[in-house]
């Protein structure tokens, strides 16, 4: 026979009462409400110690499939002696655990880490709880999230559901909840639970090269990112060595690690374009200085490398273009401070403004640069103040931008040397004639093309030569 006792039964608690002369099979657990009469006054109770346990079909408590450890079984031999008869019975007392302990996590908070872009299925860690009752434990996370899950309800392995980009997500937090019973609704048995907070820091991986600054980040595919820059430009004077760090546009040569969380140190090097050894680049700062003067005008294009000190497979290149220009000693100068022009009010956009009221010679503004033999600096550009009704070609011809009403319009015009920013200013006054009294050339033109018919009476050069007249020449 078997008797079942709870693990926390008090000492000397009565489990059941045996009556002499009754069949052994009739013994029942006291808790089943079948009291037995006491007739054991002259019986000897002899414990014989523990014995190997074998589940008995008649003992449901002995075969709990969720019990991780077998109940403890005590076996005793009971001998009852009476003047008329002697009886012996073997009794197995099974000590069964009850669920009176909560599961416990080792810590309230767990700080885990995971390299970014770890693939789906990667196990971050196993966060297990313990339960003194030895109950089977059931886990779930809250809130459920797109990045992490647990392996299964009984196995709290924290696994990756979706690869994470460090630039997008740097930490994920959720609660891990454990319950020591299978959940039923409504609950049918006592249940205990525990909660731990899981914080997972995403670690930056060195998967990106240096990015020259400034640059514009562009996402490629789902997780890849590149940063687009446009290179650097500078200007130096022909035959003149500039002292100090050369200023560049849009800023100094500078790169940062595309992995902002790693921010590896970067060094710089000129890969090509410096065969004449005019320039020196500081490998730590990226600053560029001159070692000697450039003796040939025109652009010098340096290819500059930025490479990580650690993991030199991560590198990037950019261009630094220096314009070697002739040093200006004279700013441009208009040949007049005040220009006068004429145009019909019936003239449409792109019509030429003429230089006299007979309207047969186009107006042309001209600025000369005394640094050039013929006075023509090919880098000079003309421009009207913003919002003007007129535009001007590189050759200085003035065009209508919009229709204008009769009257006089005065606007400021500038001649700018685009190599050094030097400029001159003049005024253009245009008399807009009533349409009925004038006859304008009807050919509309693009702002950069001058019709040959319009120029027939002018002395516009057909070819420009940058005949330089440098002060030293
Ligand atoms: Ca428990
Ligand atoms: Ca990274
Ligand atoms: Ca990197
Ligand atoms: Ca000049």
Give an account of the 3D structure:
The chain has 473 residues and is mainly beta. The protein has 4 domains: 2-96, no CATH class; 104-203, Sandwich (Immunoglobulin-like); 210-325, Sandwich (Immunoglobulin-like); 333-437, Cadherins (Immunoglobulin-like), CATH 2.60.40.60. Helix content is 0%, strand content 39%. It has strands at residues 2-6, 43-50, 72-81, 86-96, 104-105, 109-115, 123-126, 129-130, 138-142, 148-152, 155-160, 171-179, 193-203, 210-212, 216-220, 224-228, 232-237, 255-257, 266-272, 279-281, 288-290, 298-308, 315-325, 333-334, 338-344, 367-368, 380-384, 390-392, 398-400, 407-417, 423-433. The chain is elongated and about 155 Å long. It binds calcium ion (CA) (4 copies). One calcium ion is lined by residues 206, 208, 257-259, 262, 264, 308, 314. This is Cadherin domain-containing protein. Residues 106-212, 230-334 form the Cadherin domain. Keywords: Calcium, Membrane, Repeat.
Protein topology:
Layout: E1 2-6, E2 43-50, E3 72-81, E4 86-96, E5 104-105, E6 109-115, E7 123-126, E8 129-130, E9 138-142, E10 148-152, E11 155-160, E12 171-179, E13 193-203, E14 210-212, E15 216-220, E16 224-228, E17 232-237, E18 255-257, E19 266-272, E20 279-281, E21 288-290, E22 298-308, E23 315-325, E24 333-334, E25 338-344, E26 367-368, E27 380-384, E28 390-392, E29 398-400, E30 407-417, E31 423-433
Parallel strand pairs: 1-4, 6-13, 17-23, 25-31
Antiparallel strand pairs: 2-3, 3-4, 5-8, 7-11, 9-12, 10-11, 12-13, 14-18, 15-16, 19-22, 20-21, 22-23, 24-26, 27-30, 28-29, 30-31
This protein binds calcium ion (4 copies).
GO biological process, one term: cell migration
Main location: membrane
Keywords: Calcium, Membrane, Repeat
């Amino acid at each position: 026979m078997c008797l079942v006792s709870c693990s926390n039964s008090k000492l000397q608690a009565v489990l059941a009462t045996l009556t002499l002369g009754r069949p052994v099979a009739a013994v029942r657990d006291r808790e089943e409400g079948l009291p037995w009469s006491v007739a054991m006054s002259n019986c000897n109770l002899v414990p014989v110690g523990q014995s190997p346990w074998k589940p008995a079909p008649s003992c449901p408590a002995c075969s709990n499939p969720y019990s991780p450890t077998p109940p403890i079984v005590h076996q005793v031999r009971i001998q009852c002696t009476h003047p008329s008869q002697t009886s012996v019975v073997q009794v197995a007392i099974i000590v069964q655990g009850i669920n009176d302990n909560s599961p416990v996590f080792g810590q309230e908070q767990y700080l885990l880490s995971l390299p970014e872009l770890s693939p789906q299925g990667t196990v971050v860690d196993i966060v297990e709880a313990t339960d003194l009752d030895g109950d089977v434990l059931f886990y779930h996370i809250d809130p459920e999230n797109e990045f992490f899950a647990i392996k299964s309800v009984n196995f709290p392995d924290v696994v990756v559901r979706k690869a994470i980009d460090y630039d997008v997500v740097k930490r994920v937090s959720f609660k891990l909840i454990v319950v020591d019973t299978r959940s039923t609704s409504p609950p049918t048995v006592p249940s205990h639970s525990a909660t731990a907070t899981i914080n997972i820091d995403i670690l930056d991986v060195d998967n990106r090269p240096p990015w020259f600054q400034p640059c514009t980040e562009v996402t490629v595919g789902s997780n890849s990112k590149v940063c687009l820059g446009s290179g650097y430009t500078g200007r130096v004077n022909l035959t003149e060595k500039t002292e100090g760090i050369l200023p560049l546009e849009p800023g100094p040569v500078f790169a940062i690690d595309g992995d902002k969380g790693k921010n590896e140190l970067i060094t710089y090097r000129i890969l090509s374009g410096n065969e004449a050894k005019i320039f020196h680049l500081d490998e730590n700062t990226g600053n560029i200085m001159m070692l000697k003067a450039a003796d040939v005008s025109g652009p010098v294009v340096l290819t500059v490398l930025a490479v990580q000190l650690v993991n030199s497979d991560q590198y990037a290149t950019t261009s630094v273009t220096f314009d070697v220009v002739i040093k200006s000693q004279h700013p441009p100068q208009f040949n007049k401070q005040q220009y006068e022009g004429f145009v019909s009010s019936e003239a449409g956009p792109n019509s030429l403004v003429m230089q006299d009221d007979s309207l047969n010679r186009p107006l042309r503004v001209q600025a000369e640069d005394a640094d050039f033999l013929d006075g023509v600096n090919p880098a000079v550009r003309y421009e009207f103040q913003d919002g003007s009704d007129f535009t001007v070609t590189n050759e200085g011809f003035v065009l209508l931008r919009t229709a204008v009403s009769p009257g006089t319009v005065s606007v400021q015009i500038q001649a700018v040397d685009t190599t050094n920013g030097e400029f001159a200013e003049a005024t253009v006054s245009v008399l807009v004639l009533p349409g009925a009294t004038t006859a304008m050339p009807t050919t509309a033109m693009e702002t950069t093309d001058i019709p040959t018919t319009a120029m027939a009476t002018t002395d516009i050069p057909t070819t420009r030569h940058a005949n330089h007249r440098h002060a030293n020449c």
